[in-house]
Amino acid sequence: MRAMKTSSSSKPQVSALASMAAAARGKTTLADHVTSVLAQQIRSGEFAPDVRLPSEMELTERFSVSRTVIREAISRLKSEGLVGSRRGSGTVVLPVTQATPFRLDLNVDDGRDSIQAVLRVIELRRGVEGEMAALAAQRRTRAQNLAIQQALQAIDAAAAAGRDGVQEDFAFHAAISNASHNPLYTSLVQFLSQFLHAAIRVARMNEARSNEFVQQVRAEHAALAQAINDGNAEAARAAALRHMEQSAQRLQAADRAFWASAEGQAAARDLARVREGG
């Protein structure tokens, strides 16, 4: 059975050369390009449902890339629900109607884009964490309230030890999600963790440059924890929203010197790795 309606791999090969040039400029990766081309061919019907994809070797030759790149692209297509493995048939195309996964693309290319990427994550978190905090204030148990307080103390301990506190910050927000008693919030926070870790690290690296910022973050976390402890849903919602708004403002206040520093460059690489799925 022919895998494609059209023969010849000239277009993918030409595109592969363009992809290599783009990758060299840091604008995309080879895996990005291969994934994009194959996804477009599947969605357009060029690869029909239930048809087996070309072998790894064939795709490697067609795109002039390594097997590692092809495997990464296939993995991404599987995560998007566009292809699947079938015993005896290898990798086959799934009906497009089955492709319903959710993913985030931060599109990070440089320092300024890194700022915009983090701002997008913060904007997304704003709506999620406001309602999550309100529910936590209404529903938290004594044990869950204690977990939130302990997570807050862990952030302080990390700061005192000179660590960035990224893991502790995430644990604090995760404790709040658990206290909401809505497993969907918990699942969403877990899904966002891959983006939150990089975003929080960027924010923390910037905040560490200013003692005033450090104190602001501490006060915001304390206000949020106190509102949940008091069972005040409106105050908890307001505290969470303020924390997100202030986080965005602090990030926007980051000067170019931060992004030119070793810390800023490391932060940009963190976000780029999140975008590339690694």
UniProtKB/TrEMBL annotation:
<keyword id="KW-0805">Transcription regulation</keyword>
<dbReference type="GO" id="GO:0003700">
    <property type="term" value="F:DNA-binding transcription factor activity"/>
</dbReference>
<dbReference type="InterPro" id="IPR036390">
    <property type="entry name" value="WH_DNA-bd_sf"/>
</dbReference>
<dbReference type="InterPro" id="IPR000524">
    <property type="entry name" value="Tscrpt_reg_HTH_GntR"/>
</dbReference>
<feature type="domain" description="HTH gntR-type">
    <location>
        <begin position="28"/>
        <end position="96"/>
    </location>
</feature>
<keyword id="KW-0238">DNA-binding</keyword>
<dbReference type="InterPro" id="IPR036388">
    <property type="entry name" value="WH-like_DNA-bd_sf"/>
</dbReference>
<keyword id="KW-0804">Transcription</keyword>
<protein>
    <submittedName>
        <fullName>GntR family transcriptional regulator</fullName>
    </submittedName>
</protein>
<dbReference type="Pfam" id="PF07729">
    <property type="entry name" value="FCD"/>
</dbReference>
<dbReference type="Pfam" id="PF00392">
    <property type="entry name" value="GntR"/>
</dbReference>
<dbReference type="GO" id="GO:0003677">
    <property type="term" value="F:DNA binding"/>
</dbReference>
<dbReference type="InterPro" id="IPR011711">
    <property type="entry name" value="GntR_C"/>
</dbReference>
<dbReference type="InterPro" id="IPR008920">
    <property type="entry name" value="TF_FadR/GntR_C"/>
</dbReference>
